[in-house]
Amino acid sequence: MNAKPPRTHLERVLQERRFSITAEVGPAKGPNLDLIRKKSVHCKGYVDAAFITDNQSAVVRMSPVPCAMVLKECGVEPVVQLTCRDRNRMALQSEMLAMVGAGIHNLLCLTGDHQSLGNHPMARGVFDLDSISFIGLARKFADESRFFNGEQFKGAAPLFLGGAANPFAPPLHARVVRLQKKIANGVDFINTQAIFDLPMFDTWLEAIKKEGLHEKVYILAGIVPAKSARALAFMKESISGVFVPDGLITRMEQAKNPEDEAINWAVEMIHELKNREGVAGVHLMPVMWEAAIPEIVTRAGLLPRPESAPQPESVAVR
Amino acid sequence: MGPVARFGYKSLVYFEKLFKQTLFDCRMCGACHLSKNGMVCCMNCPKGLRNGPCGGTGIDGTCEVEGIGECVWHKIYRRSALLHTLARTEKVKPALDWSLQGTSSYLNLWTGRDGSFEGRGMRWKIKSLLGLERSKSTDSTGAAP
After folding, report:
1. Scanning every residue of chain A, which has its alpha carbon at the shortest distance from the alpha carbon of B114?
2. Domain-by-domain residue ranges, chain B?
3. Are A266 and A284 within 8 A, CB to CB?
């Protein structure tokens, strides 16, 4: 995974084995692009890339590509997330063309939470592709300039492709096989689901290492700093695929200053994860609390972040 | 739902599927429009249109999609004319609630889960016709299967 020249700043950071730090930025639940500009302040200079979510938790929000364009203008490297829940393969490709046309080359391919979990349970789920087939087709789209039907298009669309993995969802065997399939289809990096339970994460990591998969993809470990014990309890109840141990909720309940405690916990987690072989970086997903990012990154001693080099001409011109 | 109720519900769905799939190519959308559409299932339209034909219908009434033949809505109007139910096709139909797919449309009609009788369902209608329904009653929540 080191052979090719980096397509994006994020890839360069990961190739150079700098422990990367990324964050999630949620678009507004309304016609408000300024929210992205506001949130970019908390990211600029503190993270290597910010991920723009696509109707996260199946709740309608602004489309990710325009938000990523604004984020790029603000000087933060964007990663676009696209889900198969809301778009069929035609819509996915038009979004991909739009993002590449706007000079954005990081893409995270997801299946997406089921629509019944969000605010439009009456909607028809698309699920034309699943994340694994999406990654495979996106790889050909990026490397061979081929649409998903095999037809060639003019120009190049280099993409640094990501996928997701949930280390906590049973059975463990299936998680390893799914990751292998994503790698076979050409994924470059993997975002994990929010990690609260380190021993459980280690079990997964060991299983991954046994197959040597950590050498084939960059694994970005997900961390969710939650403002309060209530927020944690809410996540435990209503976010699919997240497992929160009761011990952490108790710790937050007993803390005098829960926000400070949450940042402490996140910093502890970063130090723990940094020491693990196979973890290439951490991905912060503060729920409606982007303001915590600078504090966490500073306290974790991860500053200064690598300077973003001017885009290689081969990419910029195309 | 308890095991007995679950068995009863599954049996209902099974027989509804058997009956309507055999006779009407039913797609089990869970919000049945057969009686409003001259006993032709509108979900057989390749676009699943519930309010009338699209602009792609050929001059001879064929569907723009190959292999379909006669436009489903062309057939709906033809059959509705035969059954003298054309007026029923003229009402604006709301967007389909896709979470109903695979559920029993009979029960949804009864409870109002499909939005029938302003979401109060057939049971309310029958009660009110019999004069059993109090005017203030807000029995609108359908028993979710």
Report:
1. A122
2. 32-95
3. yes
